[in-house]
Design brief:
Blueprint lengths: L2 E4 L2 E4 L8 H14 L9 H16 L2 H22 L4 H31 L2
Antiparallel strand pairs: 1-2
């Protein structure tokens, strides 16, 4: 098969591994131009890519909890250090440890989002 036709136009297809790839792209471009540039989700591949980005965005909602957790930890530590300045070293050590655990959740959320985008 040397090429495919879309709406009577010959589309060359040099890629033998994915024989319908150029046909799919040409069909999508045809629908976009027919609607005056308005994009419609008539392409399964485009739909799956859109769902990947939505999933990655939902995965990153874990970073919201991490940011709130860090704020609460620092708030409590500053109040405790203000009430008991003698225990500042212990409180500060525990605060840094709590911040590290809260930020680990945000890093896990980022890792999951990147896996969804690039590996799924």
């Amino acid at each position: 098969m040397a090429g495919n036709t879309v709406r009577g136009t010959e589309i060359p297809n040099p890629n033998s591994q994915f024989p319908n790839c150029h046909l799919l792209i040409a069909e999508t471009q045809y629908h976009i131009t027919q609607l005056g540039g308005l994009f419609t989700m008539n392409d399964a591949v485009a739909f799956l890519h859109a769902m990947r980005f939505i999933g990655a965005g939902l995965a990153m909602t874990g970073a919201i909890g991490a940011g709130a957790g860090v704020g609460i930890v620092v708030n409590g530590a500053v109040q405790a250090m203000g009430r008991n300045p003698d225990a500042t070293g212990i409180i500060q050590t525990n605060m840094i440890l709590g911040i590290a655990f809260a930020e680990a959740v945000a890093i896990y959320a980022l890792a999951v989002a990147l896996i969804i985008i690039f590996a799924a």
